[in-house]
Design goal:
The chain has one domain: Up-down Bundle (Four Helix Bundle (Hemerythrin (Met), subunit A)), CATH 1.20.120. The protein contains five helices and six strands, in the order H-H-E-E-E-E-H-H-E-E-H. It has helices at about 5-20, 30, 65-85, 100-120, 140-170, and strands at about 40, 40-45, 50, 65, 130-135, 135-140. Strand 5 (about 130-135) and strand 6 (about 135-140) form a beta hairpin. The chain is globular and about 50 Å long.
Length: about 170
């Protein structure tokens, strides 16, 4: 039976489709635009790679983040949640390559969705309750992992849309 899986797959795909459309025409200037004085972002490095600002736990209040940070954060979350819940569980955030520009980040985010989408296409509703390993410590059900990923994609996708609106309005 695939009622819940189909619902999660629709939410996953719908949030991705909205975000992908919102990313059309994204320039590097907009990608790196800092909407506040102090932000977390992505920093290109001299070797053509990049690094992302991140502290764990994040400070209170958490800093404002750029489109670059949000898009890379989405991709990294997809990679690591999949890696630990459904994959070999070997990589961690420090092992991921950070894209250094808007188009590379968009492609990395798209690629990060593929293994999650593939797992969802083959799962049935019974698979959703199975405990899965987690990079956060305690095991989580596949349902919980997928709900986190859908929520993150929806949440940060909306933030990216707002940042694009603010950038275009000159704010």
């Amino acid at each position: 039976m695939r009622v819940a899986c189909d619902l999660l797959a629709d939410q996953w795909r719908g949030a991705a489709d909205r975000l992908d459309k919102r990313l059309d025409g994204l320039t590097d200037a907009e990608f790196f635009w800092a909407p506040a004085a102090a932000v977390w972002t992505v920093h290109p490095t001299a070797d053509g790679r990049a690094r992302i600002d991140y502290d764990w736990p994040p400070p209170e209040p958490p800093p404002v983040t750029t489109i670059a940070w949000r898009l890379v954060h989405l991709a990294n979350g997809n990679w690591i949640y999949w890696e630990h819940a459904f994959g070999p569980g070997q990589r961690n955030f420090v092992d991921l390559d950070i894209p250094a520009d808007a188009e590379a980040a968009r492609q990395d985010w798209r690629a990060s969705r593929a293994p999650v989408t593939q797992w969802l296409s083959q799962a049935d509703d019974g698979d959703l309750d199975a405990p899965r390993p987690s990079h956060l410590g305690r095991p989580r059900s596949a349902r919980e992992v997928l709900q986190i990923l859908v929520d993150e994609q929806t949440h940060h996708g909306a933030e990216i849309a707002l940042l694009r609106d603010l950038y275009r309005s000159g704010r």
